[in-house]
Amino acid sequence: MAAVVLIGIVGAAGGTAYQIGKQQAAADERNKLSGERAVLGERQVAQTQVAQIVAERDTLRDRVLELETQLLAERSAQPQEQASLRCINGELVVRRGNSWSSAGHC
After folding, report:
1. What residues does 83 pair with on adjacent strands?
2. What's the pLDDT score for residue 48?
């Protein structure tokens, strides 16, 4: 009789341990999925921020190019002034001392 009771107790303990293990595995899986969702959310936020920064950079580049073009046009229209940067026949030239050298296209 004691053996049957002992087997019942051991069996119940084993079943309980199995159920606890299943619950722990399910909780671990939920935590893992929750963590993955959080990482994906953070990644999306970072990608959005990078896209905004790139768009702002491109806008600023365009504005700088526009201002440089305006400056070159003004300086080219007033050649009598001593400008160190000019656009002559589509060529950007810069004055260094008493000489002029090419600095690319304008």
Report:
1. none
2. 96
